[in-house]
Amino acid sequence: xxxxxxxxxxEDSLPLANLYKQYLANEPxxxxxxxxxxxxxxxxxxxxxxxxxxxxxxxxxxxxxxxQWIKKQGLPSSVIIVTSHGTLNTAVDLMxxxxxDFLEKPVSAERLKTTIKNQLEHARLQGLVEDLQSSFxxxxxxxxxxxxxxxxxVYRIIDSAAPSKATxxxxxxxxxxxxxxxxxxxxxxxxxxxxxxxxxxxAIPHDLMESEIxxxxxxAFTGASNDRKGAAAQANGGTLFLDEICEMDLxxxxxxxxxxxxxxxxxxxASKEETVDIRFLCATNRDPMKExxxxxxxxxxxxxxxxxxxAMPPLRERGDDILSIATSFLVSYAKEEGKQxxxxxPEAEVVLxxxxxxxxxxxxxxxxxxxxxxxDGEAVTIKQLPPPLNETLSDQEIRSITQTMKPEPTSSGFGxxxxxxxxxxxxxxxxxxxxxxxxxxxxxxxxxxxxLKAAVLLQISPSTLYRKKQAxxxxxx
Length: 477
What we know:
Protein name: Luminescence regulatory protein LuxO
Strand order of the largest sheet: 2-1-3-4-5
Region (Disordered): 404-427
Domain Sigma-54 factor interaction: 144-373
Low-confidence stretches: 132-136, 404-426
Helix content: 40-55%
Number of strands: 18
Number of domains: 4
InterPro entries: AAA+_ATPase, AAA_lid_NorR, CheY-like_superfamily, Homeodomain-like_sf, HTH_Fis, P-loop_NTPase, Sig_transdc_resp-reg_receiver, Sigma_54_int
Keywords: ATP-binding, DNA-binding, Nucleotide-binding, Phosphoprotein, Transcription, Transcription regulation, Two-component regulatory system
CATH class of the largest domain: Alpha Beta
């Protein structure tokens, strides 16, 4: 245990409170005492202990009220009830209300120390689990939706690269969220309070691109009636994101390289240089090495920019993220359009999950918008999906895939037994989802229903296990 653990003793008997202090005198914990319920509440409004020893009989209020207040406020403190007025039924009822343990007076020194050590260790492990969940299994992150392994990797790279000034070279197919990624890096960086300026090098004519980046002075070219700030000046102190950088003209690439190396640039038509402090991010949907090999992208610029590579995964490789993203779009657009949609039918989910999504998240967004604008209802059906999604799979294929998603018969204790189609007699081949579910259910049963222990044995995140378990229970309902 660490000396940073704090324990609050709520006990109206001063001799008993002093006895507990003696029991715990050599333990590396910080103790505080409260003789009344109100004194305890005053303390808890100022500080949050890791653990609370709570007497049920207090002079001004019952201990149950304090327990209820603690749970209502959402305090993470573990509560151990200590009372001489306890029964088994009382203990069970208090545990249901949120107490972590129940001790009956008189309490021996060894019993008290062991119980406190166990609860503090549990709190420590729970904190580690929550830290792991926040670090390794985030379901949303800086504008992204998705908990798949490829996206967890993206989140970790962003976390690591954001504090630096190093250039991040983002690659990925069109529609995978490269600009969202660039904004996430900026928002996680020390420059978050400064400007984020994005330029799409493929959408601006080549003869105007230099002016867009560096700006121009009045009379620099026909139509330049005023001085104009470029993206470089606008992004000073912040981040400049150059999207589709492989589309940039070779001559301008040379000027860009010098700008990145020195931080100095010259407006079109100007005679003096200006200096800025910029963090560069860039992206392309092409293979940059192929562009270098074919002479369309400068090799020296590539190596200058390619400091931290970050590859955005295509939607088809993101598993159940497809359904999470689609549902988020559906709920948002339904609210916007005044429609009733809240979910997709199981058959529609199968189609969404198995469609290759060549246009990635952008295409998915347009598909959902199409459905919401043209239709209404509670659940989106296959017929409401636009072509080619409503033609992707035959009815027989959809039934076959849906059948493999149904629960296997189980005796693990967290769902009623249901039947599903048997594998073809004599065949050893089974859907991976069935094998995974069977392994998880057997492990949870082996651990007597303890999901945390099962997660440790299976070497996966507890939150992943809870999510899968919840999804199966929903299917069985």
